[in-house]
Structure formats: structure tokens, C-alpha cells
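Reproducibility note. Readers wishing to regenerate the assembly model reported in the main text can use the exact inputs given here. Chain order matters: entities are listed in the order in which they were concatenated for prediction.
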Amino acid sequence: MSIWEYANPTRFMQTSGKLLPLVSVLSFACLIVGLVWGFFFTPDDYRQGSTVKIIYLHVPSALMAINAWMMMLVASLIWLVRRHHVSALAAKAAAPVGLAMTLIALITGAIWGEPMWGTYWAWDPRLTSFLILFLFYLGYMALWAAIENPDTAADLTSILCLVGSVFALLSRYAVNFWNQGLHQGASLSLDKEENVADVFYFPLLVSIAGFVLLFLALVLLRTRSEIRLRRASALISRERLS
Amino acid sequence: MPDLGKYADTVLSAYVISIAILIGLVALSVWQSRQSRARLAQIEARRNAAPPR
Amino acid sequence: MIALLQRDLKLAIRAGGGFGLGLAFFLILVVLVPFGVGPNSDILSRIAPGILWVGALLSCLLSLDRIFQLDYEDGTLDLLATAPLPLEAAATLKALSHWLVTGLPLTLAAPLLGVLLNMPSEATLWLVASLALGTPALSMLGTFGAALTVGLKRGGLLISLLVLPLYMPTLIFGAEAVRRGTEGLPTGTALAFLAAITAGCAALLPFASAAALRMNLR
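Running the prediction on these inputs yields the following C-alpha cells for the assembly.
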């Protein structure tokens, strides 16, 4: 029994079919508990007032935006090295989820920034690198959509994901460097680790768990759709041949 | 409803937009899943109706 | 290898595509900017380095889909793939010839266009240095993007979406080097990073480009 058994689409469909309802329910429960706890039962921050409640959406989605890309990178590597189709399809399935997470992080950040910094958008290193990540997701999905042959598409997007990861990381540090020339970043960046007190910390943890499980559930669901569609097109081409 | 003070608009709009995006994403995924299921079922039914030569 | 390079250069010059077109685009872009932001020379001289860098980026982008497209259509690429010359080397040469017909002329033309934008004279040296160091990376990355989209009918628009995010670090360090140079700050770090990106691209991207080409030709 090894993890590679799940590379078999049938095995994957069986196991993920059992797992999916469980993960969905758990993620729904965590999200509800985390967000309701955060929204209704936490005190206001003495400095930021009630806007601190945005943290329960902003931090988990930002976290998942990066982790979704990491997951795509790992899945792409597995596809390139071991040629497991499920892996390639999982990477494809994760991209829109990651895109949505990046969008949520950007939007909540902008809405939060308006009262706190006096502006919706500043070319702060963190904000800028998230915008760049958003563009990377767009390019990755566009490449998937553009290529007809599914195996070639999986190959090329995997390569793009590898090169893109290097350059996304590079952009992160380049942007840090670039902003120093303009102004001190500290006035605009929130040091979250120090800022968060226990009252905010536990609902935040639950909310993060909810986002992680939601990501997992969505990736499972979407991978299952992709596998079905792949099988359908395989059957159609077999019909044409006979 | 907790008292959100002067930032009520900010907090509420952040929650509404985020939850809307999440629901949209989930709905899209579920819809695609249904579609893929229906498509596969249709093709397999056709295959079973016409036995392979 | 030399023969391939010569052939590419000849084709590029005779077809009149990349060579003239990229430069003309660069010129037009620089002419358009003052119409957009107004003729105030203070503002123009402040944004000149950035405009010139972005202009160079976009002009590079313009000719990218030609790198492999014609060779793919007439079968030359298949020959290259089976030739004794490794595909990695072919990809490097393609990038080199792209740089020679776009990056190099852009670098040489940039000081002249800088005059149009009231760029301070002390910035000129840094602009040329940063463009000379940075544009090879742009060509390497562009070759990679072209290799990814070579089999597609309408890859032109997709290429920009794929390649522009990859251009960002180069742009940041390049424009930052010029800005610091203009303000009299040390530029060593920015230029060193720029050179590091170019060196890293030259070392690693040919493998990625060649892998993408093989996948597309399979």
C-alpha cells in the first residue's frame, strides 16, 4: 500500500468519492464556526476597531493562495517525473481555486486598506507580489485552456509552473528591493504575528482550517470532474475509431 | 449583530464579497461536476446500447 | 551552429520583421508618452527610465511569436529536433539571434530616445548598462514563452500573458538601477541582480525551452 496507488484513476475515484462528503462537511463546519466566532464573538482591536474582523477572511485566503500554487508545483513535478494523469489533473483543478483565493485576499486587503491606510491600493511589497501571483494563475489557466491535446497541455503547463515558481519567488524579493527605494515599508505592512492576540488567534486558526479543508474538497471535486471528462473524451475517440 | 462602529460598511462588504466569491467557486465546481457526470453517463449509456463490435 | 545563427539573422533582416518593427514600435511608444502625460519636462525626465524599460519590454514582446512559428510551419523545427545539434543549443541560438535583432538595437537606440524624454544625462550610462545586462534575459524568457505556444494557431496574445509576469523581476531591477544611478545612489546591487537573472536564464532556460519544444513536436 503506497501513495502511488492513488495514481490509478479508478482507485482515486473510489477513495475520493468516499472522502469528499466528509471533507466537505468538515470544511463547512470549520468555516461556519471560524467565521461566526470571529464575526460575532471577538472584541474589536483597540487600534483598528472592528476592521480586525476581516482578518478571518484575509489571512486564510492569502495563505491558501500561496499554498495552492505550491500544491500545483508538487503535482506538476509528480506528473513530469512519474507521468500520473491524476496528478496533472489535480494541478489543473487547483488553479481556479488558487485564483479565487488570491482574488479574495486582494479584495479583502483593499477593503481593509481603505480605512487603515487611507488608500485601497499601495505598491507595498506584499500587495504587489500577490498581484503578480494573480497574473501567474491567469497565465497558467490560459495555457491549459489553449492547448487541445491534454497530455501536451499537462506537460507544457507543468514546465510553466516550474519556471513560474522560480520567477514568482524572484519577483517577491525583487519587489521587496524595489520598494525600499521609495519609502519605508514598515508603516504600511502589518506584522501579523505580533499583532494577533489570543482572542483573535483561535477563531483565526479554525477559519484557516476551514479554508484548507475547503481547498481540499474543491480540488477533490474538480479533479473528479476532470477525470470524468477525460474518460468521456477517451470513450468518444474510441467510438470514432471503431 | 455585533456593533461594528464606524467601520460597518468596510467589514460587511469584505465579508459579503468574499463569501460571494467562495459560493460562486463552489457553485461553479459543483455545476461542472454535474455536467461531467451527465456527459460520462450519456456516453456510457450509448456504448452499452450499442455493444462493441 | 554558426550557420543556424547566420540563417536566422539573414531571415530576420530580409523579412524586415523583428529588426525594424521593434525599433519603430519603441520610437512610437516613446513619442506617445508625452502626449499622454503632458509636455512637462520635470515629469518626463523623472519617468523616462521607467518608460524606456517598459518600452523595451513591449518591443521585445512584439517579435516573440516569430521565433519558432515560421520554422514550425515549414518543418525546419522538426529537422532541428532530429539534427545532431542538441535542441537546447538551438533554443539558445534562437534566443541569441532574437537578442541581436531586438535587444541590441533597443539598447543602442535608448540613449537617443532618452533625449526625447528629457532624461538626465547621468542616467544614460546606467540605462545602457542595465539594458545591455537585462535584455538578454528578456530574449531567453521570450524564447521559452514562444516554445510553449509554438503549436498554437493564435499564440500571440497568450505569449504576452505568459511572458510578461516572467519579465517582472528583470524590469524591477533594470528600472531600479537606472533610477538609483540618476539619483547618485550606488547601483551595484541592482546591476548585480540583473546580471544574475540574465546568467541564470542563460544557464537554465534553454533546457526548459527545449523540453517545451520536444513536447510540442511529439
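We highlight two features of this model. The radius of gyration of chain A is 20 Å. The longest helix of chain A spans residues 198-241.
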